[in-house]
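Write out this protein's structure.
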Amino acid sequence: MSIRNAPGARALSRATFPWTTPTWPGAVERPPVPSTLGVDYETEWARSYGARLARVVVTEGLTRPLAHLLAAPRVDGLDRLEQLDEPVIFTANHASHIDTPLLLSVLPERWRHRTVVAAGADYFFDRRWKAAFFAFSINAIPIERLRVNRRSANLAASLLDDGWSLLIFPEGGRSPDGWGQTHRPGAAWLSVRTQRPVVPIYVEGTRRVLPRHASRIRLATTRVTFGKPLRPTAGVDARDLATQIEAALEVLADEQQSDWWSARRRAAGGSTPALTGPTASTWRRSWALGDHAGPRERSRRRSEPRWPDL
């Protein structure tokens, strides 16, 4: 009988395997452990039929009613999308975590359940439970915000080519004070690469619902305005298109504060107010936003007559 087949050896093998941790030779370099978080998190499962069906139930039964209860959105400009029936890139300003569920709740039905959200890989995909939660709940995909990442860019482009639309915030993150930030060219680059139109969206009021670093949600009114689609043209690079997108958002913001005609006149004259706000002290910039409006102001706004939504 060989030593390997001896009863004592078999008993020792059963007693020590697999309970002991295998050793690694000190002279041999360990291979790097493949990352499964951040931009490397795999989200394909969240676009499977079962996950999509479950997300429709959650969106229609919970997310939409809750978003409309908390934010009471007024939606304008949907008529500008009537001729669109293709994958598009939705770009919006970003002031609150409420922006994403609110926008997904007001998208026309032909895009609502066929849109992925570009989310910061360093924030939404840094832990496994967060990555799974956001991949399922808002159909998020990880995007590198601080530098160009080929994996995340290729994923977004392939999904656009596959018939999915994309919601992205060109500012790269929530505004620290409510005013706009300089746009990054990621959305424009994807539009030029895939030849998909960009739909600018201006969202107002979400910062009153859930400001940055706030610990509780407040009821407030919001307004979402969809702009005219922008299509990449020959000879226009990503930076030029990014400038056009930012200018379109500024015009939409001006339109909300005044009216369509006045906003277009200022745009034609090059006098549209910048989204970055006035150069002034912190309290003056905050006051200029109008975030000081309280519950009474909210009630007054809701009681004001509105033109019918035609």
